[in-house]
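Form 7-S
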Amino acid sequence: MPLFIKTMRLICYFLFLILVSCGIPQAEYDRLKRENEKLKNKLAECELTPAEMYEKAVNYYDTEEYTKSRKRLLTLKAKYVNSNEYKKGKVLLKKVEQKILETARSNKKAKISEKEDNEGMSNIQDNPDSEANKKALSRMEKKYDIDNDVTWYRDKSSTKLNTKNYIQAYIGKKEKKPWLGISINYFSKKKSLHIERIEITVDGEIFEIIENIPGEFKEKQESGGKREWLDRVVKNEDLTLTRKIASSKIAQIKFVGKDDVYQRTITKVEKKAIQNVLKAFVALGGNL
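Output:
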């Protein structure tokens, strides 16, 4: 048995003797217990065979714990570089390091995107000529309503299908000043809710949407199912809620009806579309 392993076992035994002794303060007991556990873990690591090391590296890879897998493979290399297991491990190591690089790049892009979104949301209030707002305006689908002399703007990523569940913001513009609208849609082929109110939870904060006037929650049989929706001009509380959804990390929408309740998470695509609409609204001369 290697001298190092013998020494580790003696230390573990020594700590065990201390732990079972009486009169030790609780804090010191806990510290010694933790040290003993660490030493046991190190001892267990030292006694792993090349096959066990490789197996653990593969398991970490399968569960996407790439840093742990790499560490295990490097230990295998350091201790058993000439083993058959390390020959297989070299191939796995390349894959692991590639995955680590891909994850790092993905995280970096996500942070940049989040930063840009946050910066964009903080600048839209009083900067109609900003590049971010102009860029958002270019992402709008534009449609002129000749009968009402209104130009409508909606984000190109927003669905047009009434058979989908969605929350969307849009813009209407007649003459000079634009206005914001919000559209919330529920569709099911299985059951009706007969919606009485909508609850939206934004990063833990709960908002309630109720009818401002009777009949705002509408219902219709459509495409072999039941469509229920709300569509109205954004004012006061709705504007605060819309902005919070756009900049939220987690937002959930709950339809509370007479007969049942339905809840889902508002998607990143929906939130990004609302961000774009808010920025485009300011670019068109609107005030938030």
